[in-house]
Design goal:
- The protein has about 475 residues and is an alpha/beta fold.
- The chain is built from 14 helices and 23 strands.
- The strands form six sheets. Strands 19-20-18-17-21-22-23 form a seven-stranded parallel beta sheet, with helices on both faces. A four-stranded antiparallel beta sheet has the order 1-2-5-8, with no helix packed on it.
- Strand 3 and strand 4 form a beta hairpin.
- Helix 2 crosses helix 10 and helix 5 crosses helix 13.
- Belongs to the UxaA family.
- This is Altronate dehydratase family protein.
- Keywords: Lyase.
- Pfam families: GD_AH_C, GD_AH_second, SAF.
């Protein structure tokens, strides 16, 4: 199917997106394109005076730096950000649209605390970077020895846990403890060194997993063999778990975008938004993070706060994150990335308006800080930066049992929980089938509703045990947000 040249999202918009490479002289939407425009980039469909807002998604994505005429390529050469380091916010709630629960289900592992995991794995978590390789060696040998009895044995090494102070150390401890509490972990082995700042005894105070073992490498005569013996004990317990039918209300979806392009806000992110709506309407949970990547669109989330208290918490979270940038002498608009710009995204406002679509129209029921776990159903806003690995780790630690990761550029990265890679365009899906799990370009060829049905089927299959591309490739990483002094 041949795509039309341009697509206008909202009739108020002054720009449209090129659905394919457009040549100079082509006419679409009543305008003649004045110069060649790459796929995913924007073309003016209305005149915009210098200093006036440029509209996309029905909202401003920046300010025209000079007069823009219809048919002109609209990008960094003629649009600048209008973001500031602070914002004036008022509580003006809107009524969410009516959503109906879906009848889909999946096969998951119901844990003693009532949560449902999508995997039954043994996780080996080091307290400190010094024993990261030790954890990997234990996990590798255990996976070979116990393969088939559980869904996998995985280690999550990291470089932190020592030479950290105060809040920085607490952040490392909190994120590791939260991971250890995850329902996808049928058993957890915490591997400590002995002399590190992140002492095992302190870290496990935040862990309430019923199938937990610990080892101190300095106190062990053979930490690898002892670790294997402890994993054997964990497997004996974990292997008793079996999959059973569970409704969508038991899913916890983390939603994330990485390497966005001009199609992300047209296809992949709106599709993920539909998944957030379906799961939360069923009584499940969705988690949105990447706080710097909602700057310029935060009012849309604030208007959907479940209460004035939640609104105040969103304001505080966004304002604190902006202040974090300012304290370090950085502009709050220091985004999009070079890859985003090459893909057609011009300003952070444009990126943010596309990014918040992953939350659909769900009501924001709670705000959580970095390293904290979800505590309500509905949509939770989670504190974390935009970095793919850091924010995806935070989503997993918060309790996401699957992550929907949209991308227009592609990445091989995978994270502790099943990470479903959703390509914003069919070209990426065709070029990188070893990375991509779902082609959101179907939204342009087949329509948004059929594409959403297909994506929901994919999510339920993965939640029931189908491996993602990242899982097949052995891509399992964590990254911890480092914010403080290193000794």
């Amino acid at each position: 199917m041949t795509h039309p040249a341009l697509f206008q999202i909202d009739p108020r918009d002054s720009v449209a997106t090129a659905l394919r490479d457009v040549e100079a002289g082509e006419t679409a939407l009543g305008v003649t394109v004045s110069a060649a425009v790459p796929k995913g980039h924007k073309v003016a469909v209305k005149p915009v005076a210098m200093g006036a807002p440029v509209l996309k998604f029905g909202f401003p994505i920046g300010t025209a730096s000079r007069d823009i005429v219809p048919g002109e390529h609209v990008h960094t050469h003629n649009v600048t950000t209008a973001l500031k380091g602070s914002g004036d916010y008022a509580y003006r709630p809107v009524s969410p649209p009516q959503r109906h629960a879906d009848g889909h289900s999946f096969l998951g592992y119901r844990r003693a605390d009532g949560r449902v995991g999508t995997r039954n794995e043994i996780w080996v978590i080091p307290t400190v970077g010094c024993v990261g390789r030790t954890a990997q060696k234990i996990a590798k040998r255990a996976a070979a020895k116990f393969g088939g009895r559980v869904d996998g044995v995985h280690a999550f090494p990291h470089p932190f846990g020592c030479s950290q102070l105060g809040d920085d150390l607490r952040g490392t401890r909190d994120i590791l403890a939260a991971l250890a509490n995850h329902p996808n972990a049928g058993g957890v082995l915490v591997v400590g060194l002995g002399c590190e700042n992140n002492q095992t005894s302190k870290m496990i105070e935040g862990i309430d997993h019923p199938n937990l073992r610990t080892i101190g490498a300095q106190a062990s005569s053979d930490e690898i063999e002892e670790g294997l013996a402890l994993v054997a004990e964990l497997v004996e317990v974990a292997a008793q778990a079996t999959r059973e039918p569970a409704p969508l209300s038991e899913l916890v979806l983390g939603v994330k975008c990485g390497g966005s392009d001009g199609f992300s806000g047209l296809t992949a992110n709106p599709l993920v938004g539909r998944m957030s709506d379906v799961v939360t309407a069923a009584g499940g949970s969705a988690i949105l993070t990447e706080i710097p990547e909602i700057f310029g669109a935060e009012q849309l989330l604030m208007a959907r706060a479940a209460s004035e208290q939640v609104f105040d918490e969103i304001v505080e979270l966004v304002s604190d994150f902006k202040a974090y940038f300012v304290r370090h002498g950085e502009p709050v608009s220091e985004n999009p990335s070079p890859g985003n710009i090459a893909g057609g995204i011009t300003t952070l406002e444009e990126k943010s308006l596309g990014a918040v679509q992953k939350a659909g129209h769900a009501t924001v029921t709670d705000v959580r800080h970095y390293g904290e776990r979800v505590r309500t159903r509905g949509l939770t806003l989670l504190e974390a930066p935009g970095n793919d690995a850091v924010s995806s780790t935070a989503l997993a630690a918060a309790g996401a049992t699957a992550i929907l990761f949209t991308t227009g550029r592609g990445t091989p990265l995978g994270f502790p929980v099943p990470t479903i890679k959703i390509a914003s365009n069919s070209d990426l899906a065709a070029r990188k089938p070893g990375w991509i799990d779902f082609d959101a370009g179907l939204a342009l060829t087949d329509g948004m509703a059929p594409a959403a049905d297909a994506l929901l089927d994919t999510i339920c299959a993965v939640a029931s045990g189908r491996e993602t591309a990242a899982e097949r490739n052995g891509e399992r990483e964590i990254a911890i947000w480092k914010r403080g002094v290193t000794l």
